[in-house]
Structures are given as structure tokens and as C-alpha cells.
Design a protein that fits this description.
470 residues, FAD/NAD(P)-binding domain, 3 domains, seven-stranded mixed beta sheet, binds flavin-adenine dinucleotide, binds ligand EGU
Length: 470
């Protein structure tokens, strides 16, 4: 298409979904000059009285911040977040241990999901080439023509077309349905046996009930609770446990008994009555991990964010990965002169391995924490990781550091982690060999009284019997 000026008219990009990734993507495309329209099922959350949706707050880290920075939003969002410099591990006895995320001044941020979403929508609207449409639910679309059908609350339908469709409609994406009908589209989804439930910890005497600049963690193997601070001085506690355990608890007293066993220090902070009520407000919420490939159909459609890769929340990376998707798509647009027929396959090629890597890492961490991470083990492991990093800062970089504080490609972080594990295990082998050699040397220098080591025959027989029968 050529205008009379000789300048090509910018293409029309329709973003389906005005959640976190959709709203940010609208800014990215608008900044490049595309004609952008966003279609969102929900009403405008900036006018809504109650915003329902998943998790109240989220951990924002480097990748997400870098994406916000590219659309000039970093400082604003960071100023509305609460820095978390360390984790605070709560042991069953109520003891608290702080473990820093990194050097002084390195932190992640607790941000309010609804507020972040509102700010991103407002930012998108500042571009004259962007239009937001709420109360538009995508019903279906045609992969052949690109024609989309939206349902309105009054029962009517609306047909829309676009040069590029960007599916940011979340884990249960309607855009992705057309991908599933195509040959050579790979798809897998797994619901984990755990659910999550959010509980609010109110302020005490107008102050935070716990130290605010921490990500509070109660690791108890199968059961786990995490708390992130909010600007209103509350904490949002997220309880993770298997669905069958959620179902076992049916009365307020059973809730208190359960907390008495696993999270006793949280009871007075949440409050007995509030806890009894909060717990039954909503049932446990499901968590799903979704991987698929490719992320595009021809030169017409691409999926990003949870629509392309829902991950379990055990690395705090779902939104951060979705935000990084926007950066990567922009980089590919630059490299290939915004030629969608080249950009879309290239985007799938470069991004799929990284999104799959973070999905795997999050799932791995879920399994690991569930299997054997209690508070002692968590503290021990983080100290070992940090110590090795201090000893060999160039060689050993903790995995969470690469994931949380750098833009190292997720799949490279995984490769590097495997390599480091090998180096560490070899190191341990050397130390073990060293210990044996050192020990032998000491034995030669100070020969022990071996008579003490000689086992009388009858005792020896007992030992052998034990060996044989077990
Ligand atoms: P969504 O936020 O789901 O937005 C999708 C949007 O599309 C919604 O507004 C929806 O209404 C709209 N939509 C859906 N269908 C249609 C349709 N048919 N037509 C039009 N619009 C439609 N990530 C982090 O980075 N850090 C964390 O600490 C973190 N903690 C988490 C804790 C929990 C308990 C959970 C469950 C997730 C957590 N995440 C975290 C992940 C994060 O919530 C998601 O990765 C993120 O919300 C994905 O954004 P999205 O825009 O892709 O999808
Ligand atoms: C889960 C739910 C501690 C918000 C993973 C760490 C999370 C978050 C960790 C939720 C954990 C687990 C990391 C961050 C973060 C840790 C991380 C998990 C934010 C490996 C709102 N995780 N989360 N790892 O290192 O890298 O502190 O709901 F308990 S932030 Cl599960 Cl850094």
C-alpha cells in the first residue's frame, strides 16, 4: 500500500487480549508507528469497581524491567513497586533467616498486577495510532483470511481484519485454537497436582506485619507459602498445596490446625478469624504449564505471553518472560525490516527454545521444592550457591541470578547451569580425593593403635550376618 506521499502506510496490527503482555505489546507496536487496535474481553479495568483475576501482586525482575524501559515505563512502574532485596525464610519454629538476592542494590520488585495493567493501558492510549476496545471477546478467527469475530456483551458480533494478529489472550488463548487445528503444530499442557490460594495479611498498628523489603517464604516440601508486600502495607500470602489437601480442610478449626502445624507464625499475623474466612472465599486455583511451537501462522498471526507459554509460578518469571517476548519480537522486526513473512518464522525460531527452557525450569523447581525443600535445605543451598559465586565469580553464577538479574537467553542459562553443576561435582570429587590422600598422609605420620580397630571374631560374625540379611 502506497500513500500519495510515496510513504508506505503503516500496517494494521490487532492485539487480542489487553492483559499485561497485550497492553505492553500495544505500546511496542504503537511506538514503531503501526496502527494498533487492542481487543479485550473484560470491561475497562480502569473504570471497574472490582478487578477479578489471578494473583494480586507479582515479582518484577530484570527482563520485565528492560521491556518496560523500552517504552519509557520503567521508572514509573519501579516507583510504584516495593523492592525485595532478600528472601526471608520462615522455619517451622518461627525463626527467620534472610538470604540476599545479590549484591547491595540488587533486588526484585513486588508490583500490583491490576495497577501495572492499568498503567500499561493508559500508556498505550497516549499513542494517537492506538485504539483500545473493551467488552470484545474473540469468538473465532480464520487462519486463511485473518478475519476475526468478536462477541459483544449485548449479544451482537463484530468482524475485524488486520495485517498482523498478535495473540496475547492468556493461557486459555482463543487465538491458539486455530493453531491446534494445523499440521505440524506441537502442543503440550500439564496441570500440576497443586493449587494456590491467596490470603491477605493486614497491617498491624498501621505498619507492615512483617519486614516489607523481603520475599517471605515458608518452604515445607509439599506445602509452601510465599508472601509479597503491597503498597497499602498488606502482604498477599500465596499458599501452595495439593488439591486433595485443600479438599481435606472443610472447617475453620481445621484451617487453624493446619496452619498451627505448618505456618504457626503466620496465624496471629493474618488473624484467626480472617484466616477462617479468607480460606473459604475461593477454592484452590489450578496451575497449568503449556508449551507449543511454532508461535506463528504464515505472515498473519503470532502468539506471545501466556498464550504461547504458560509456566508454573515457581520461578517468578511468567510475566517477565512474556515482557521479554515483546523485546525479542522488536529485535527481529529491526533485523528483517518489518517484513512479517520473514519476521514471524524467525521469531518462532529464536524464541521457542528460550520459552521452553523457562517452562522446564519452573516445572523443575516445582518438583524439586515439593520433593525435598524445607527451610533448612533452602537456606543451605542458597548459601552454597552464593559462596561458590563469591569464590569463583566468573565461573559459577547461580541459576536464579542468570534468570532473574540478566537477559542471558533462558536456554543458555540452562546449558550453563548444567556445565556449572559438572564443574562443581568434579570439584567435590577432587576435594574428596584430596581428603582421602590427606587422610592417608596423616595416618602414615601418626599410625593409630590398630589393636582398637581389630574386631573380635564373634562380633565380626554378627556384622556379617547383618550385612547378609539386609
Ligand atoms: P493474561 O494476564 O492472562 O492476560 C490475558 C488477557 O487476555 C486478559 O486480560 C483476558 O481477559 C484477555 N482475553 C482472554 N481471552 C480473550 C478473548 N477470547 N478475547 C479477548 N481477550 C481475551 N509472573 C511473574 O513474572 N512474576 C511473578 O511473581 C508471577 N507470579 C505468579 C503467581 C501466580 C499464582 C500465577 C498464577 C502466575 C504468576 N505469574 C508471575 C505469571 C503471570 O501472571 C503471567 O505470566 C502473566 O499474567 C501473563 O500475561 P498475559 O498478558 O500473557 O496473560
Ligand atoms: C511464586 C509465587 C523462592 C511469586 C523460587 C525463590 C514465586 C513468586 C525462587 C508467586 C521460591 C521459589 C524466584 C525469584 C520468585 C527465590 C527465584 C516465586 C516470585 C528460584 C505471587 N522466585 N518467585 N526462585 O530464589 O528465582 O527466592 O506468587 F520460593 S522471585 Cl518457588 Cl528471584
Amino acid at each position: 500500500m502506497e500513500e500519495s506521499t510515496g510513504r508506505p502506510t503503516k500496517k494494521k496490527v490487532v492485539v487480542v487480549g489487553g492483559g499485561l503482555v497485550g497492553a505492553l505489546n500495544a505500546c511496542f507496536f504503537a511506538k514503531r508507528g503501526f496502527n494498533v487496535e487492542v481487543f479485550e474481553t473484560r470491561e475497562d479495568i480502569r473504570q471497574a469497581k472490582v478487578v477479578k483475576g489471578r494473583s494480586i501482586n507479582l515479582a518484577l525482575s530484570h527482563r520485565g524491567r528492560q521491556a518496560l524501559k523500552q517504552v519509557g515505563m520503567e521508572d514509573k512502574i519501579v516507583s510504584q513497586g516495593i523492592p525485595m532485596n532478600s528472601r526471608m525464610i520462615h522455619s517451622p519454629s518461627g525463626k527467620q533467616s534472610a538470604i540476599p538476592y545479590g549484591k547491595k542494590g540488587q533486588f526484585i520488585l513486588s508490583v500490583d498486577r491490576a495497577n501495572l495493567n492499568k498503567e500499561l493501558l493508559t500508556e498505550a492510549e497516549t499513542y494517537p495510532n492506538t485504539k483500545l476496545n473493551f467488552d470484545h471477546k474473540l469468538q473465532d478467527w480464520s487462519a486463511e483470511t485473518g478475519q476475526m469475530t468478536f462477541a459483544r456483551p449485548d449479544g451482537s458480533e463484530k468482524q475485524i481484519n488486520a495485517d498482523l494478529i498478535v495473540g496475547c489472550d492468556g493461557a486459555f488463548s482463543a487465538i491458539r485454537k486455530q493453531f491446534l487445528r494445523r499440521s505440524r503444530f506441537n502442543y503440550s499442557q500439564t496441570y500440576i497436582p497443586h493449587g494456590y490460594m491467596e490470603l491477605t495479611m493486614p497491617p498491624i498498628n498501621g505498619e507492615f506485619a512483617m519486614k516489607p523489603n523481603y520475599l517471605h517464604i515458608w518452604p515445607r516440601n509439599t506445602f509452601m507459602m510465599i508472601a509479597l508486600p503491597n503498597l497499602d502495607k498488606t502482604f498477599t500470602c500465596t499458599l501452595f498445596m495439593p488439591f486433595d489437601e485443600f479438599e481435606k480442610i472443610t472447617t475453620g478449626d481445621e484451617v487453624i490446625d493446619f496452619f498451627q502445624t505448618y505456618f504457626p507464625d503466620a496465624i496471629p499475623l493474618i488473624g484467626v478469624d480472617a484466616l477462617k474466612e479468607d480460606y473459604f472465599r475461593l477454592p484452590g486455583q489450578a496451575m497449568v504449564s503449556i508449551k507449543c511451537s511454532p508461535y506463528h501462522i504464515g505472515d498473519k498471526c503470532v502468539i506471545m505471553g501466556d498464550a504461547a507459554h504458560a509456566v508454573v509460578p515457581f520461578y517468578g518469571q511468567g510475566m517477565n518472560a512474556g515482557f521479554e517476548d515483546c523485546i525479542v519480537f522488536g529485535e527481529v522486526l529491526d533485523q528483517l525490516n518489518e517484513d512479517f513473512s520473514a519476521v514471524l518464522p524467525e521469531y518462532s525460531r529464536v524464541r521457542v527454545p528460550d520459552d521452553h527452557a523457562i517452562a522446564d525450569l519452573a516445572m523443575y523447581n516445582y518438583i524439586e521444592m515439593r520433593a525435598h525443600v524445607n527451610s533448612k535445605w533452602f537456606i543451605f543451598r542458597k548459601h552454597v550457591d552464593n559462596l561458590l559465586h563469591v569464590l569463583m565469580p566468573k565461573t559459577i553464577i547461580p541459576l536464579y541470578t542468570m534468570v532473574t538479574f540478566t537477559r542471558t537467553r533462558y536456554h543458555e542459562a540452562v546449558d550453563r547451569w548444567h556445565w556449572q553443576e559438572k564443574v562443581i561435582n568434579r570439584g567435590l570429587l577432587f576435594s574428596a580425593t584430596g581428603a582421602v590422600l590427606g587422610g592417608s598422609y596423616l595416618l602414615i605420620k601418626n599410625p593409630p593403635d590398630i589393636s582398637k580397630l581389630i574386631i573380635p571374631a564373634e562380633k565380626m560374625r554378627d556384622r556379617l550376618v547383618v550385612l547378609w540379611t539386609h
